[in-house]
Amino acid sequence: MRIDIITVLPELLRSPFDHSILKRAIDKGLVEVNLINLRDYSTHKQKSVDDYAFGGGAGMVMSIEPIANCINALKAERTYDEVIYTSPDGELLNQKMSNRLSTLKNIIILCGHYKGVDQRVRDHFITKEISIGDYVLSGGELAAAVISDSIIRLIPGAISDETSALTDSFQDNLLAPPVYTRPADYNGMKVPDVLLSGHAANIEAWRHEESLKRTKERRPDLLK
């Protein structure tokens, strides 16, 4: 898989891909992540990528020209399955979406900034708009990192125990059950007996019941 992230702040995005699961996936050659500086595609002397909004109003708008130049240059080299724009009014990211995106070959993620991008970019270049929550960030870089993390960890081989990702919260529209580790008794706080029983069927039934219980209590909307 290849993920090309278009950003005005590539240095802000380096750290998430230099550690843990994401770094291991990159080192294994399971995914290629490229941080592309949008300013490299600006034709202005100052390498600006924004301008004032037509009609007035507060805030600057990301210009169409450098974005079009960048996306067209990338598309000239390969075919992309999705061109994603990070936006607070996009479709809310969920596990089902991440599962689908993890099966794709080539993805572009355009990080939003300022007051947003020229609408013509959204109309003619973007194939999918994604939000990571009902709030506004200073830029789309952190959202792009979240989206990438949710995708890359699902690629076979990214996690040493692949069954771990399959039992994450939201994979079956349920929250994950409680988990415990040693010691079995800490100052009188004990692990449920069923988890110490060694009876696989009973343990699985307990986990399912606890998942249902936790989902009903905390996210009943998922059961709809």
Number of domains: 2
Main sheet attributes: strand count, strand direction, barrel closure: 5 strands, parallel
Backbone CA Rg:
21 Å
Percentage of β-strand residues: 15-25%
Question: What is the fourth-level CATH superfamily of the largest domain?
Answer: SPOUT methyltransferase, trefoil knot domain
Overall geometry: elongated
Structural class: alpha/beta
Annotation field: number of helices: 9
The percent range for helix content is 25-40%
CATH fold assignment of the largest domain: Alpha/beta knot
Kindly state the number of beta strands: 9
Question: Uncertain regions: pLDDT < 50 for 5+ in a row?
Answer: none
CATH class category label of the largest domain: Alpha Beta
Q: What's the assembly state of these chains? A: single chain
